Amino acid sequence: MSRFNELFQKTRSENRAALAAYLTAGDPDIETSLEIIDAACSAGIDILELGIPFSDPTADGPIIQRVAGRALKAGMTL
After folding, report:
1. Quick one: which of 23, 26, 11 has its CA closest to 70?
2. Which candidate in 6, 31, 38, 49 is catalytic?
3. With left for phi above 0 and alpha for psi between -120 and 50, is residue 52 left, alpha or beta?
4. Could you report how far apart the first and last alpha carbons of the chain are, in Å?
5. Which of 15, 33, 40, 44 is 20 to 30 A from residue 22's alpha carbon, by CA?
């Protein structure tokens, strides 16, 4: 069974939804990004989707476009 299936079975048995977070790596800078990721995980998120910034995220919408731009300006690379 996949980890996602196990997670969803667990949250279903606890009668709650899984809490998923999306964060862009390197926003607003690399060090703060790591602190935010650590804080989110410590706060109890079930799933973390970590976005990798790139120079033309037009399909991602204006918010993710801005955070990707900040991350790239801060020196984030793959």
Report:
1. 26
2. 49
3. beta
4. 30
5. 15
Q: Where are the alpha helices (DSSP H) in 1-78?
A: 3-13, 30-42, 62-73
In the residue annotation, 31 being an active-site residue is answered as: no
- Report pLDDT digits (tens) over 27-49: 999 999 999 999 999 999 999 99
Instruction: State both tokens at 3.
Output: 């980890």
Instruction: Please say whether the beta carbons of 18 and 7 come within 8 A.
Output: yes
Which residue in the block uniquely carries the two structure tokens 């703060």?
A: 32
Q: Is 49 a catalytic residue?
A: yes
Which tokens go with 13? Answer: 């048995």
